[in-house]
Amino acid sequence: MSEKSEGDGGGEPAAAIRPTEPQRRYLERGLSQPGGKLPLFDSDGREVAPRTVQACVGNGWAEPWFKNPIKPDWLVCRLTPKGYAVLGRPPPTAPVPGDGTPNVTRRKKA
Question: How far apart (Å, rounded) are the C-alpha atoms in residues 107 and 80?
Fold first, then answer.
């Protein structure tokens, strides 16, 4: 009798839910990135499996950050405080500069 938790608070206690090895590798890559940005590709250059990304979002370890204008079907995410906690790290104390979105250079029309 095994029920799968969706990460919505209705399944196992949060302390009991741990990332799988692929999920942990994905999340750990955000530790060294500004704002906790998570990668679209793994260390071998392959796209991170969408089910890995969705599972991390579903468990509250990652959150969608912004829409990718070049590939709208790719989900660009960042670590959440819960994501840092599951990795045993405190979230950064300094806020991300600006409004929390990645720095995008925009040219002003003259």
Answer: 31
Taking only the tens place, the pLDDT of each residue in 33-48 is: 999 999 999 989 999 9
**In terms of Cα–Cα distance, which of 88, 91, 92, 93 is closest to 15?**
88
pTM over 0.85: no
CATH number of 14-86: 1.10.10.10
CB proximity list for 68: less than 8 A, separation 6 or greater = 40, 74, 75, 76
Distance from C-alpha of 49 to C-alpha of 51, rounded to nearest angstrom: 5
Rounded Cα distance between 50 and 32, Å, is 21
Name the 3-class secondary structure at 27.
Answer: helix
Angle of helix 21-29 relative to helix 50-58, nearest 10 degrees? 80
